[in-house]
Give the backbone structure.
Amino acid sequence: MNNSYTYKKVKALQFPSLLFVMLLMVSSCETDDVQTVTTLTNLVMADEFDTEGAPNPSLWTYDLGRGPNGDGWGNQELQYYTDRTENVKVDNGLLLITAQEESFEGASYTSARLVTRGLFEQTYGRFEARIRLPYGKGLWPAFWLLGNDCAQNIWPQCGEIDIMEYLGDSPNVVFGTVHGPGYSAAEGETKEYALEDDRFDTGFHVFGIEWGPDYINYYVDGDLYNQITPDDVVGEWVFDHPFYIILNVAVGGSFPGSPNEETTFPQTMLVDYVRVYENNITD
Amino acid sequence: MKNIKQQHMKTIFSILVFMALIGCERELSNDAEFATFSTTGEVFTDLPIGLGSDFYFPFLGSKATAFSVDEFVAYESGASMRFDVPNANDPEGNFAGAIFRIEGSGRNLTEFDALTFWARASQGVNIGEIGFGQDFGENKFQVTRTNVSLGTQWAKYVIPIPDPSKLTEERGMLWYSAGTNETGGFGYTFWLDEVKFEKLGTIAQAQPAILNGVDVEQDAFINIPITISGLTQTFSTASGNITVNTTPSYFDFQSTNVDVARANELGIVSVVDTGEATITASLANVAAAGSLALDVSGTFDFAPTPPTRNPDDVVSIFSDAYTNVAVDYYNGFFTDGFQTTEGGAPPIDVNGDMVINYTVLNFVGIGTFQDVAPVNLTEMTHIHVDIKVNESIDSGDFIRLQLLNSVGNNETSGDYTIDGAALTANQWVSLDIPLADFNGLGDRSQIGLLFFISDATIADIFVDNIYYYR
C-alpha cells in the first residue's frame, strides 16, 4: 500500500492533473454530507491585537535580517526583516506586517517575521488566524509552525507545518503543507485551496489546522480541505513535539519569483487574531 | 433522505407562500413598477443571446462578411462566433471589425464585473482590440483590451468592467478589430465562444490612471480646451494584472481651482481664467494615477492670418490657411550631428490651430525627401514664415533659413540669414523672403529640406504659416 502510494505520488508530481485527482481521492473520505471543521474548543492562547504599538513582547519575538547564512532564509528571499514600526505594528485592532520597497542593509525590500519561539510552543491543538493577505507578484506571506528542536534536529527533521502559504500573483489560492525528512522543500505534502469567486486580499479569511497525534486537518473558513496523516508522507512523521508559530511576509526568492512592474508597495498582511486551542481529546 | 424530502417540502411551501404574497401585492397596486432593463449576461452561447436580429455593424473599410456562426467549431456544445480576418489586399476590406449592439433597450450590467469569453485562433496572433460599450452613439462607456494574445487552443479571456455601477443600460455588448499587421498581410481565423458578462469575484485592487499615469505640467490658454487622454483601468485578476483602455465617463474629474480650469465628464478641460489649476480624477472612488497641472497666463497668441492668395500660387509646408504638401517630419532629430532641438514632432494642436514650438533650438530640419515627393519651387518666388521668439533677442542673435535641393544626390543648398534685429521678442513677425536671396541655391525643383538654424543664439520659437508663393 505504502509502496504503491509512493509510486503514484511520483507520477502525480509529474502530472499536476493526476495530483489533483489524487487529492480528490484523498479528500473524498472527509467530505461527508455535513462537515465538522473543528472539534477543539479549549482556548489556551489568543492574541486579538487590541493594544496599539509593538506586538506583545511576552508572546512575539522576531527573526531579523536575511537569515542565519545571509542567503534569504535558504530561499534567496529579497527582504531584510526588521522589527521597525514601518514593517510591524499593531493598529486598529490588527497586526500589520508590511513589506516595503526600500534600500536597507544591502537589501531592496524590508518586511517582518514574528515568531513565538521560546514564548509559546505547543504540541498538537488547533492553530487558527484570521488574515487579509497582500497581493502582487513576489509577495509570499505565510502563517506556519516550526518544530522547537531545529537547533538539535536540523530542518527538515524538526518538522514544519505550513498552515497557510500564498503567492501574491495567485490572489485566490492558498495552500497548506507539511515538511519533514524525505519530504522537504518542493517535495512537501501539500494541497491548494482556491476561492472560485473571491480573493484573499480583499477580505479577511480564517486559516487553521487541527493537529493530533496522527493527523493534521487543514481548513479555510468553514471548509475542511485536507487531512494529512502518517500514511500520506513519504518519510518519518515528525509532528509529535512542541512547535512555535511564525507570521511573515517574504518578498521574492526562488519560490514566488521576484516582484515585477505590476507589484505595488507597500504591501501589508493584516492579522485580526491568532488563537490556539489545546488538544484535550484523549486517544 | 427523509430530511431532504422534508426540506424540499418546506422550500416548496415557502415559495408558494412567497408567490401568494407577491400575488396579493400586485393586486393591491400597479404604481411601483420601475422601468428595468435586462440583466442577462450571455452575449453568445450557441447563438447570439437577446441581441435582436439587427445587431452586427461592421466598421467602415472592414470586410462586412467577416463574422459568421460556426457550427463545426465550438468550445462548448454546438457553435461559436467565427471571425475570418481578410488578407490585407482583400478588395472587400483589409481588416475585420464590428460592434455587436443590442437591437432595442440596453442591459443592466451593474451586477457583473467582467466580459469573459473563450477564444482560439487558426494561428497564434494578437487581436488588436476586443471590448464592449461601443454603440456607434456616444460610446460613453467603451472599454478596450488591446493586443489580446490568442493561441491555437481554447483559453478563457477576461475584460474587466472599469466600474460596473455605470452600466445601467448598455447596448454595446461586444466589439472587435483585427488586422494582419502581424501576419504579413495574410488573413487568419479566430473564434469566440461562451461570450458573457460574469461576476467573477476575483477582479480587485483597481489602479485607474489618466494621462497614462504621468503627472503632466503644461502651459494652457484661456478658451483653449484640453482633452485628457491616456485613460486606463487596471485590475489584479486571478491570472495577473489586466489593463483596459476606458472612456472619460467612467471617471470623476476634480480641479484644484475651478475658477481657472475644470473638466467635464467627457474629459475635456475648459480653461476659463489665468492662474494655476491641477486636474485629477478618480474612478469608483479610487484616486487615479496621473494629473494635469496647468499654468494659465492668458489667451493664446496665434500667428497672424496670412494674406489671401490663390491656392494655385502657393506651395504650403505648414499652415492652416492652405492645404499642406506631405512632409516626412517637422523635426528630423538628426542624431549624427549635434542637434538639440525639441518640438515639432508633432506640432502643437491649439484647439484645431496647428503651431510649431521649437525649443532648445540650434538647428532643425523639415524634410520632404524620404517618403514624400520633393517640393518643386521653380515657379515660386518667395517663402513666407511667421516666427515668434519666446525670449529676449540679443545682438548677434539670428535665425538662418537653409534650403537643400536634391538631397543626397548632387545636392545643392542656399541660405538666408534673418538678423535678430528683424525679429521681436514675444511677438509674431511675418517674413516674406525672395527665394532669389537664398545664396547659392540655383536649382529649386526638388527641395527636400528646410532648416531653421540659430546656433543656439535663439532657443525658443513658435513657427507658423510656412509656405512658398508667387
